From TrEMBL, chain A:
GO cellular component assignments: plasma membrane
Keywords tagged on the record: Amino-acid transport, Cell membrane, Membrane, Transmembrane, Transmembrane helix, Transport
TM ranges: 6-28, 61-80, 92-114, 142-164, 185-206, 226-253, 265-283
InterPro entries tied to this protein: ABC_transp_permease (IPR001851), BCAA_transport_permease (IPR052157)
A GO molecular-function descriptor: transmembrane transporter activity
CDD domains to which the protein is assigned, alphabetical: TM_PBP1_LivH_like
Annotated membrane topology: Multi-pass membrane protein
Similarity-based family: Belongs to the binding-protein-dependent transport system permease family. LivHM subfamily.
GO BP, sorted A to Z: amino acid transport
Pfam families hit by this protein: BPD_transp_2
Subcellular compartments: Cell inner membrane
Name the record gives this protein: Amino acid/amide ABC transporter membrane protein 1 (HAAT family)
TrEMBL record, chain B:
Homology family: Belongs to the leucine-binding protein family.
Signal peptide positions (record): 1-26
Record protein name field: Amino acid/amide ABC transporter substrate-binding protein (HAAT family)
Leucine-binding protein domain segment(s): 29-376
Amino acid sequence: MFAEFLQYLFTGITIGATYALIALGFTLIYNASHVINFAQGEFLMIGGMATVSLTAMGVPMVLAIILAVLLAGVLGILLQRFAIAPAKQADVVTLIIITIGASIFIRGLAQLVWGKEYHVMQNFSSDEPIRIFGAVLNSQSLWVLGIGAILVVGLVLFFTRTLIGKAILATSMNKEAARLVGIRTQLVLMLAFLVSAVLGSVAGIVVAPITFTSYDIGIMLGLKGFVAAAIGGLGSGIGAVVGGLLLGVVEAMAAGYISSDYKDAVAFSMILVVLFFMPRGLFGAKVVERV
Amino acid sequence: MLKTILRRTGKFAAIAAAGLVMSAQAAEPIKIGSFLSVTGPASFLGDPELKTLEMYVEKINEEGGVLGRQLELIHYDDVGNASNARNFASRLIRSDRVDIIVGGSTTGATMAAVPLVEQAKIPFISLAGAVVITTPVKEWVFKTPQSDRMAAERILADMKDRGITKIGLISGTGGFGSSGRTQTLEVAEKMGIEVLADETYSGSDTDMTAQLTNIRNTDGVEAVLNFGFGQGPAIVTRNYDQLGIELPFYQSHGVASDSFLELAGDAAEGLRLPASPLLVPDSLPEDDPQKDVVQSYKAEYEARWDSKVSTFGAYAYDGLMLAVQAIEAAGSTDKEAVREALENIQGYVGVTGVYNMSPEDHNGLEADSFRMLEVQNGDWKLVN
């Protein structure tokens, strides 16, 4: 009984950690520009696919991972420079639509370059699963959780301790004021895309040994990441992490205890329930309407 | 005077034109129409199918054609979309006026074309799997792949041979998986096998540990069957291994390909599935009637296209050969005669199996045409 529960919990936390990383990417860009970047899932895909194809070419794994993250980062900057920046006067809604277009474009490109097959990535460490109280934990799960935790701590430090981080925060709070005190807001926006692309690609790489990877892996994972960000409250870092973990655990519990048929339905109706009672999400900023 | 000349030339022209038409008719090719999912999500089906059709139409023409006439292949790409398939089927029938249709990579595309084909009364050999295509029997519709029902029969029979009577089922929620699930439940009831656990997963799921834990914790389960398609079954296989479940594990023919072995890796060791003999051409026994056909198809395809042969291409091979055999037997391309000849083909030895058509059975295959394979040392091994 307990072993069963523990098993669902492990499953949920592992996939939840991935959702959390994707949600953080959404949050970053949302904070800097109020744009919901629907190409976030594609960063994930680029990370995984580039690592797989580089290792297949004989590049050592560690180097392949670094190159893949760099590639995703460059892609993030390009996306901001060539798709978002030229339309800076446009509505947020228009920008969101641009990101959807960009994601379809990137996916199409990936399909041409890498084909449509699914690919395997080796576990970072041993293939041997770890047994705890009768439940089984894939050793890769520990990598997902560990790297996820490191990234979250790193982000917190980045935003509270560095000037650039503070500049991003300032821009998110008030763009006009930030510009007045001398922050180059376009540069900040570019940085936000870069960091979020790096986050996404790292998530894509650590989770690839568990989920496999293919050109279209970003669609569903990106969507789930968005749900996690919305549950947590768009724009909140803690919200993204909690939302992601919560979503993963609820999904796994639903599949285990209710029925696997309703797993996705439970996940997506969770967003309704949360937003109904807390329209800004669990940790969303309180907005005071000034009259 | 001028008028008469004009009239005469007119008459001559008419006669000359008529003559031309007649001579053209004598040498007119037999038109084989096809709509396949050559690109799009089902391209892994349509691509080898088209390659097979092109290659064998060429080969037959080099050898003198059928009934002394050349074959002409007219094909369209439906991109895996059923409404495209319907449009192309209509074009094949109305404007290309083909003699027979061999095509329809997916069940959706096939079923979209069926009403048109039935109405136009033109023989149609489908290359798609689901049991609905030929059950109930439709006068003008035939198909070459085994149905998912036969796969279920084959798997459950193998389980029975091993003394297994209580199983856990996990299936994908996509078209293939859910149809397979329905068939498995039906066949299981008929064969007296109890399905104690019945779990599902969606095509984009990345972890099936929870579902498998449920199956593992169900008392009395003696074997597990996964009916699914794509990468899902590979993840199920890996999770199965990670959870350390020791029960015999079965997969469906949906993953009978080398890329599945690559994805699932060591975790696939020991699992069984029904598959086309094309996967194990060299281990077929000498007295296997299909051995020659299977080996030569594989050799010819790989030599021509420099890519690995797939079971889907074999469906097109069998479809084309059945069509040719029927036209030869009918002695003409008269549609009713060809249809009747198709219906009466007995003992055609194809790559997929040995076909024995009848008015009640427009598929003509037995569940035995599936070979039971087991994964041993990372490769397929023929066990039954």
